Amino acid sequence: MEKYKEYKMANDILVVAEHRGGELKKITSECIGAAKKLAESFGGEVHAAVAGNGTSGIAEEISKYGVKVTYFNDPKLADYTYEGYCQALVPIIKERDYAVIVMGATPTGRDLSATLGARIGAAVGTDCTGFSVDGGKLVVTRPIYAGKVVSKMELLTRPAIMTIRPNTFAPADESGGGSVETAACTIGDLGVVIREVVQKAAGKVELTEADIVVSGGRGIKEPGNYKMIEDLAEVLGGAAGASRAIVDAGWVDHSHQVGQTGKTVSPKLYIAIGISGAIQHLAGMSSSKVIVAINNNPDAAIFKVADYGIVADALVAVPMMTEEFRKLLAPV
Amino acid sequence: MKIALLVKYCPDSEAQIDVEDGKLQTSGVKYSVSPYDEYGCEAALQILEKKGDGEIILFSLGPEKNNKGLKDELARGAHRAIHISSPEEETCIARIAPQIAAVLKEENPDVIFCGWKGIDFDCGITGTAVAEVMGLPHVAMVNELEAVDGKIICHRQVDGGEEVIEVTLPAVITIGKGKKEPRYPSLKGIMAAKKKPIGEKSAESLGLKLPDAKSKYVHFEKPPAKQAGKKFEGPEAVAEVVRLLHEEAKIL
């Protein structure tokens, strides 16, 4: 049996912050929210680690959530790499004996959690939607089989690592009372070379973080009609998504795809337009809180999961919906 | 060039998964190769077509039925395969990765492809963990790639854009959805697959002592059934739905 470090009770929770382009990602405040609940169960406090180059402002921002922030500053940490982050984090993880390490189930968080887990011999639970602590043992809830089954998984190591599904845990309050310390780090070879980072569509809401997603499928008839999806998304302050059918047809880039071979989204509102509701699409959006469907075909599978369904031609209904929301959301 | 591809054989995405008494019921369910591994095979075939020669070797860890998945990818164009025998219930990466790594070390491939996640347990850990056990660099969730002079140039999505990462071989690359759909195996390919060799390995035959499990599934259940929603006819219903979203669902 794995020998736990019982002589020195591991109580504290570490959140690894995620930031890009000088901005703190929303997922970090959700991680801190989850971490605060974990800290209550384990009887410890929440720490956060930020790695970057000249990002002390982000460290300060995180401290407002009332957590102890450790800030690693190095030119080699300017862009996320698993090697850079591990070289910064592993020494303090070994020194401080955390109970749980929390990060987002984002491309960065998934990459880092898997790498870190292998390096320090820690169990990893990914894309968690809940957790419980039972006699000092962490049990995570995670969807499997594309959400068809909900599983509970025991993570038997200390630390254990969990990545949380975006938009699932409530963000922490800015309770104040946090602190920032700068930690020394020596970053060597990064193992890979980042040749280029191409930022498209600056200012657009990221699909996996969006509170509202409007998606289009084959029922929009022509590539040019995707604009009406984007218009509705914009009025709602949300992100525009797509079914696999129109991505494969080349109407939109794969980065918009929602579904089993695309992205998993958890918005509070998902509007599916001209989408039939194939299992593979549902896999990517079934945990949305409210689902609205617009489809010409009254028997479309999407209506089985929709909270509100409208059997209508998308080309007629969508501009009407955009106008209705515009009126509803107009400043009084 | 020697390309290794890790293959997961698991319930098909259309399969109905049942749960009884907190346990999974998957016997009798249709199995197929996990889609991201199929994209991996396609990426490997494209590299070999450009290079003119090379070899794709498949590796699959799991029960006897995984051999069917190996045959499917052999039919697509891979050259030979190795099945690592392991019980279907084995889910702990601390036990899985060392077995795969040990077999890969024997073969010494130039690059290792692995679907970024298997569509059964949706973990997304295996490729990265195998790379770490082997001490190899890795790039995750790659959509497009090119092999150039002992390196792979990887394109992957990051939020709001794209990243181009260069990794020196040998390395592990976990594969996301590619631009080109995996090709269908030809009848000729299916016939040829019957003669392609599939080797057998196990933790025992490799002389491996596996650690105790560090994680364990303890319960499964179906998610709560969704309540039937409201359905309306005609675009005139749009105004009513918007009102309901505001007043009933209180979403906006």
Structure, described:
The complex is a heterodimer of chains A (332) and B (252). Chain A is of the alpha/beta class. Chain A is built from eight helices and 18 strands. In chain A, helix 3 packs across helix 4 (107-120) and helix 5 packs parallel to helix 8. Residues 1-8 of chain A have low confidence and may be disordered. Chain B has 252 residues and is α/β, with parallel strands linked by helices. Chain B has a single domain (2-223), classed as Rossmann fold (3-Layer(aba) Sandwich). Helix content of chain B is 27%, strand content 33%. Chain B is built from six helices and 15 strands. Chain B has helices at residues 35-51, 66-76, 93-107, 126-134, 187-193, 238-247, and strands spanning 2-6, 9-11, 18-20, 23-25, 31-33, 55-62, 80-85, 111-115, 138-148, 151-158, 161-168, 171-175, 198-202, 215-221, 230-233. The longest helix of chain B is centred in the N-terminal third of the chain and has 17 residues, at 35-51. Chain B is globular. The model of chain B has no long low-confidence stretch (mean pLDDT 96). At the A-B interface, helix 4, strand 7, strand 9, strand 10 and strand 13 of A face helix 3, helix 4, strand 9, strand 10 and strand 11 of B.
What structural category characterises the helix and strand content of chain B?
Answer: alpha/beta
CATH superfamily of chain B: HUPs
Mean pLDDT of chain A: 94
N-to-C terminal Cα separation of chain A, in Å?
64 Å
Number of strands of chain B: 15
Number of helical segments of chain A?
8
Largest sheet of chain B: 9 strands, mixed
- H/E series of chain A: EEEHEHEHEHEEEEEEEEHEHEHEEH
* Average pLDDT of chain B: 96
- In the CATH scheme, the class of chain B would be Alpha Beta
**CATH topology assignment of chain B:** Rossmann fold
Report the uncertain regions of chain B.
none
Largest beta sheet: strand ordering of chain B: 11-10-9-12-8-1-6-7-13
Largest interface between protein chains, with number of residues from each side: A-B, 93 and 78 residues
Can you list the strand order of the major beta sheet of chain A? 7-11-6-1-4-5-12
